[in-house]
Amino acid sequence: MFQLSNLLKSPIGWLKAEGEFSDQVVSCRVRLARNLKEPPYPTSALPRELKLVLEQVFHAAKKTKELGHAAYLKFSDMEKLDQQFLVERHLISADMLENPAHAGVIVGDKELAGVMVNEEDHLRLQYLLPGLSLNKALQSALALEGALGRDLTWAFHDEFGFLTSCPTNVGTALRASCLVHLPGLVNTQAITPLFQELSKIGFVARGFYGEGSKAYGQLYQISNATSIGKSEQELTETMSSVLKNVLRHEMQMRLKLMKGAGKAKIFDRIWRAYGVMRYTRLISYEETMEELSWIRMGLALKIALDHLNLDKINHLIIVAQPAHIQMAAGRELNPQERDELRANLVRQTLD
Asked: The domain 6-254: what is its CATH number?
């Protein structure tokens, strides 16, 4: 049986600091919601129907080249810590923890491809890539959907498109999102007006774990709010265009912070963050993310922080999370134990 702890030892493909705008965009994701034609949707299906969907999807996925050698995980085989670990890994949504009966997830190589089974819809298949690579992620997600569609029949309406549990997802049922680092906008108090403008043109900004979550370390998920009226290609192209405007605005705000006497303050804050992380003995995840945000901004501004690079910072953003710390320790920990082990991990990475 696949052990989740194995994922701690494997590289995460979408965390690599490469691709366009990788100093500002940690990753991008294209997610497609799909329902099978016959069974009721998960919100109204009986347990036996959900179990059948899980079996059908796993069977179909094992026949594809994209997921033939993937990890197949059933929630019924997991402890709560395992499930939280998957949320932190961005492999499942927090909503799946509310009703885990007969739910499952498929994890592809390097965690680039994945499928959530029996969340709000029968399938939520996704493809993640580093940097602003939405078009490439779209093509990979569509290829995966096509491979699964050889064995599965989707719920589709000639007028409305793909049918989903939530009306805002009908049509293409596509959600394109990018995890972006926006310290310039946050520290110049320009972030709220920007998000208000985004909402007016059909985009939404969410926290680190998606809907309803907090933004740690000035990291936000920006995505399209609706998926009807445009093709998949048009949606991702519009998303890329909007994101590039956001990133240009972010760079302007970073340069604004660096003007005149502000430059010394920014340099001081970045090096203070490095000092805290270099010598900490107890540190919470929230504080870790705050200090990593400044260090990440410093690296993007080409400030030489010893041997550090964006790859190491991106890695810490994920592995310093609470469930990751406990998985590495091999047991559940109290908050102080987590903070101590997190500090050890941070120091080792920066050493």
From this structure: 3.30.590.10
The closest of 128, 123, 116, 121 to 149, measured between CA atoms, is 123
Residue limits of CATH 3.30.590.10 in the chain: 6-254
Cα–Cα distances in Å, from 68 out to 61, 219, 295? 7, 33, 39
Euclidean distance between CA atoms 28 and 22, whole angstroms: 10
Number of residues written out for the chain: 351
Distance CA 319, CA 327 (A): 10
Structure tokens at 36: 């099978």
Q: Which residues of the chain have pLDDT under 70?
A: 1-3, 211-212
d(CA 64, CA 304): 45
Q: Return the H-helix or E-strand segment holding 153.
A: none
pLDDT digits (tens, 9 = 90+) for 182-223: 999 999 999 999 999 999 999 999 988 776 677 889 999 999
Please give the distance of CA 184 from its chain centroid, rounded to a whole number: 21
What digits encode the pLDDT tens for the residues 148-183? Answer: 999 999 999 999 999 999 888 889 999 999 999 999
Directed axis angle between helix 285-300 and helix 335-350, to 10°?
20
- What would the two tokens of residue 170 be? 């009908």
Residue that the structure tokens 């939404």 belong to: 204
CB 273 within 8 A of CB 260: no
What confidence score (pLDDT) does residue 9 get? 82
Residues 6+ apart with CB under 8 A from 43: 120, 165
Q: At what angle do helices 262-279 and 232-257 cross, to 10 degrees?
A: 100
Phi, psi angle pair for 171, to nearest 5°: 100, -115
**C-alpha to C-alpha distances, 285 to 105, 130, 210, 333, nearest whole angstrom:** 26, 23, 17, 14
What type of residue is 68?
A: G
| pLDDT score for 212 | 66
